[in-house]
């Protein structure tokens, strides 16, 4: 039987590493794996056990948490772990996978008798490090007891949306939320680029809207990144572009035109072509200027 106090975290990038660290701080038995091992190794200082492969990470674990680049990466990783997955293991799939990728993930869970929970999160680097993510969850009632200490460690709030992870309810909500996040990011970048082009001090723009309905914390955070030139990734351009593509594709499948999202996707792709793919998505600022 899987040990319900043991959690395997597969994927220790910006988000996964922070989540694993908070699970260690909560006193859970944490095993971690990452395709690039050196990204996982610092977590040993927090008490995590570093695994050489996904199967070694999940063996005996009651909960498996995947936080990888996309749906296909999550599926490949879980297939690599398949021989060590025990029936009844809870799989919290937190990768922003998109709707098309969700079906094969849920099918894999069914083939291996896993309790599948679609559990994307809202938040970037700092909320993840602070354990202040919002978890959007859809999955069976019998998985929730095992997941309670996990979600409490990584987030400030869990929103249970449906009792079937395969329904896509949590992923659909995540795509809607991310469409707003990306629109705010790209609009901030464009406004500051226009200020640059017109010879307007960016601070003058921020002062003009301060405290009003047009002001918001996310605008301030992304504007600060651009104004200081600090593009340390909270949510990288390449990952934001992947999410933007999933949003546009979901809209197309639903018969909804997403003109702003489509333009934002092209903007992020242009910034990536300019060499900013690994920088924070605020670097979409550079897409306003000639290559």
Number of helices: 12
What percent of residues are in strands? Answer: 15-25%
Taking the sheet with the most strands, its summary is: 6 strands, parallel
Mean pLDDT: 96
Helicity range of the residues? 40-55%
Give the overall shape: globular
Give structural notes.
There is one protein chain. By secondary structure, the protein is of the alpha/beta class. It has helices at about 15-25, 35-40, 55-60, 70-80, 100-110, 125-130, 145-155, 170-200, 200-210, 215-230, 235-255, 260-275; strands at about 5-10, 30-35, 50, 60-65, 90-95, 115-120, 120, 135-140, 155-160. Strands 3-2-1-4-5-6 form a six-stranded parallel β-sheet, sandwiched between helices. A three-stranded mixed β-sheet has the order 7-8-9. β2, α2 (about 35-40) and β3 form a beta-alpha-beta unit. The model has no long low-confidence stretch (mean pLDDT about 95).
Brief overview:
The chain is of the alpha/beta class.
Q: Which descriptors would you attach to this protein?
A:
291 residues, globular, 12 helices
Topology:
Elements: E1 3-10, H1 14-25, E2 29-33, H2 37-40, E3 49-50, H3 54-58, E4 61-66, H4 71-81, E5 90-93, H5 99-111, E6 115-118, E7 121-122, H6 125-129, E8 133-138, H7 144-154, E9 155-162, H8 169-198, H9 202-209, H10 217-228, H11 237-254, H12 259-276
Parallel strand pairs: 1-2, 1-4, 2-3, 4-5, 5-6, 8-9
Antiparallel strand pairs: 7-8
Helix pairs in contact: 1-7, 4-5, 8-10, 8-11, 8-12, 11-12
């Amino acid at each position: 039987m899987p040990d319900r106090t043991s959690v395997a975290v597969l994927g220790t990038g910006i988000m996964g590493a922070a989540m694993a660290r908070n699970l260690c701080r909560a006193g859970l038995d944490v095993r971690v794996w990452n395709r690039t091992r050196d990204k996982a190794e610092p977590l040993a200082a927090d008490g995590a056990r570093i695994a050489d492969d996904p199967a070694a990470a999940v063996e005996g674990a009651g909960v498996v948490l995947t936080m990888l680049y996309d749906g296909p990466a999550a599926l490949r990783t879980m297939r690599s772990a398949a021989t060590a997955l025990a029936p009844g293991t809870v799989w919290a799939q937190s990768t922003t996978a998109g709707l098309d990728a969700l079906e094969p993930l849920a099918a894999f869970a069914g083939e291996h008798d896993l309790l599948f929970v679609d559990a994307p999160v809202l938040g970037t680097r700092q909320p993840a490090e602070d354990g202040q993510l919002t978890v959007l969850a859809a999955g069976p009632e019998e998985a929730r007891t095992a997941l309670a200490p996990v979600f409490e460690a990584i987030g400030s709030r869990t929103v249970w949306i449906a009792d079937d992870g395969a329904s896509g309810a949590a992923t659909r909500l995540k795509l809607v939320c991310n469409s707003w996040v990306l629109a705010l990011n790209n609009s901030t970048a464009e406004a500051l680029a226009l200020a640059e082009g017109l010879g307007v001090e960016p601070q003058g723009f921020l002062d003009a809207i301060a405290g009003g309905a047009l002001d918001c914390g996310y605008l301030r955070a992304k504007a600060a990144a651009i104004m200081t030139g600090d593009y340390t990734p909270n949510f990288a351009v390449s990952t934001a572009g992947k999410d933007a593509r999933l949003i546009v594709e979901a809209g197309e499948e639903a018969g909804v035109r997403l003109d702003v999202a489509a333009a934002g996707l092209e903007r992020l792709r242009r910034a990536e072509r300019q060499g900013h793919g690994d920088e924070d998505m605020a670097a979409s600022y550079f897409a306003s200027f000639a290559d």
